[in-house]
Amino acid sequence: MIRKLLLVLAGGFCGAVTRYLLAKPLLALAGALPGAHAGFPYDTLLINLTGAFLIGLLFGAFEHGAPISPDLRLALGTGFLGAYTTFSSFVVGAASELRHGQTFTALLYLCGAMAGGVLLAFVGFPLAGRFVEHWQVSGLDAQEAAVVGVDWADDFAIGEMSAEELERNGERIAELEGGAR
Prior knowledge:
The protein has helices spanning 2-31, 42-63, 70-84, 87-99, 103-138, 142-148, 157-160, 163-180. By secondary structure, it is mostly helical. Helix 4 (87-99) packs antiparallel against helix 5.
């Protein structure tokens, strides 16, 4: 129990610090956009949306069989992302808009953040699944991938290969493994 609390504490500390360090640069960036509304909680919106996407990736990867330990899920999901994204900042941002007579902006913020967060988490699940499935199907490590010409950053290159290409690459890897023994 103490170990789990420490994992959440460590992840939460890192998530809160990350949020703090990103808030001002995000506000400055958003403020530089044409038509930016002064006082709008752009930082909270962007942080919560990226957090929703990241939680979708994390749990999507886990559900698709990525070797993510329960301790890592606890530290990253509950700890880091729990502190990185926060409901209290979200509602304070909406309340601030309401206090300044910006009812439409507050409603747009609330609805947009909720819908956007759900959408990004939803997108994160299958995207993580694609990464995990290609990683599992390929069975290639980085060195083997370089030998057979697979670029990991090339839009899931393994998934784009035909059955014949996969078979030829498997034969090339087997040859290399046989030569190394």
